[in-house]
Amino acid sequence: MMDTNVRLVSDSPPRGNDQLIRLAYRGPLGWWYRLTAPAQPPETASLTVRELARRGRLTSATLLVVILLVLAAYPIAFLTPNHVLAIVLLIPILIDTVALFFNRAGKIAIAGVLVVVGIEVGIGLSILGPALSGGGLTTYILPQFDLLVQADFVAVSLLRPRSVIWLAGLHIVLSVLAITFLPRTPEFAQMLSVNGYEVYLRLITLQIIVAFVTFLWVTGAQQAIQRADRAEEIAALEQREIEQQQLQIEQKQQLDTGIQFILQTHVQVANGNFAARAPLGKENMLWQIAYSLNNLLARLQSYSQMLSQYQHMQEENYRLHNALQSNTTAQHELQRTRVAATRLIELLKQSQDGRIPTSTVRSGTVIDAVVTQLSNSTSSLPTSEQRPIIPQRTREQGIPKNTRPMNN
Question: Looking at the whole model, is its pTM more than 0.90?
């Protein structure tokens, strides 16, 4: 059953997110995802694994955009007299490169933190560098504070959505401290004295709006993704349940068919037909039982044939024994007849008048009938005066040759 369940899961139709994942790995950025994103999850992966892969692809794409933006700033660094900016831009690039390795290894949280740190370091150095080395904050540097929302977007996308609230608060505090306590140029100081409230309000408002809007948007998107995944899971479970029910129906039909064939085979065997077999193949669930039953029936058939041959041999042996016994009886009877005949001949030799007492020659053989016939014949002959005399030569020689018993 376990093998059947695995087959049902693997044969289930691919879900919508799985199709999007395959399209992402085959699209224009497929080579980048294969190098820097976690491995493509299987179709049967859990919701957690698929969400991890999605965040890994998002982190990979974000890092690509961030690296390209940093590289795009390099021409400006080389055009300025102070080439320190070129060295400063190397720091976020190195941080983003390390984040790529963590992202490839599946450490999405660490990679997301490194991306945010890289953006923070890059923007912070772009503000502090000119402010500390160029005579103070200028109106040119003021828009750099607005770029801190980049870290907000990355944090809300790669980290937990609530992290953008804390990060926005940190940006507000650091921005207010930087504008308040960092050195300023006279131009920047004049602008703060005139429009200071507006400068602070713009920074704070931008961070709050971006933080809450992105938090609500990402939270709603994640909930929608979770609902979609749950719906797909429910649909997949329903599909597997339907397939499981169909499989159970097929198995029940196989069981019914197999039981009927096995019962019919038992009935035929009970009626004496040991040549009956259960016609079940390997596609039936009861084929092993049928196979064992067929082997047993084959052995019973062989034993039945052996028993039939044994009975036939016993009958032949009994017939031969009877024939041998009859032959022995006939030989014994013949021997008795020979003895009785020899005795009869001796008595005839010794008899003077041809009369033989029947009581002296009783042997239980056919000679008894001969003796009886001779006795009856001699009783009807005339007296000794009138009876012809048997020549002495004949008497000495005994019975004539043609009347002598023949010896076998």
Answer: no
* Residues 6+ away with beta carbon under 8 Å from 232: 15, 16, 17
Q: Report the C-alpha gap between 316 and 119 in whole angstroms.
A: 109
Q: Is the dihedral of CA 138, 139, 143, 146 positive or negative?
A: positive
**180 and 328 co-located in one domain:** no
**In terms of C-beta density within 10 A (0-12 exposed, 13-18 middle, 19 or more buried), how is residue 168 classed?**
buried
Alpha helix (H) residue ranges in 271-391 = 287-350, 367-379
Choose between 244 and 401: higher pLDDT: 244
Domain ranges, residue 328: 287-381
239 token code pair = 């599909």
The two structure tokens encoding residue 208: 């709050």
- Whether 68 maps to a domain, the answer reads yes
Nearest to 235 by CA among 6, 7, 16, 4: 16
Q: Are 304 and 276 in contact (CB under 8 A)?
A: no
pLDDT tens digits for 212-255?
A: 999 999 899 888 888 887 887 888 889 889 998 998 888 888 88
